[in-house]
Amino acid sequence: MKMKKATVVSSYAIRGIGEDLKDSKNILIAQNDNEFSQKIVLALTDKKLNRYIGKNASIVIKKHYSFNKFKKIIQEVID
Known about the structure:
- By secondary structure, the protein is mainly α.
- It is built from three helices and two strands.
- The chain has a two-stranded parallel ribbon.
- The longest helix is centred in the last third of the chain and has 18 residues, at about 45-65.
- The relative contact order is 0.19.
């Protein structure tokens, strides 16, 4: 996601961080095997959608999951 690539995941894989991720906006979320394969094909064939999701995913990662963000949280716990 940080590399601005569309990512296909299961809903199980994003539990706990799902509030920041929205299907077809910054990630592709599949509910079953059939959806998983369909979304992989979609990500590979729809270049415009791939770029859109990748760009938005990168923004989410930088905003909520960057090294500096975690560093700040850890520092607050230590202090």
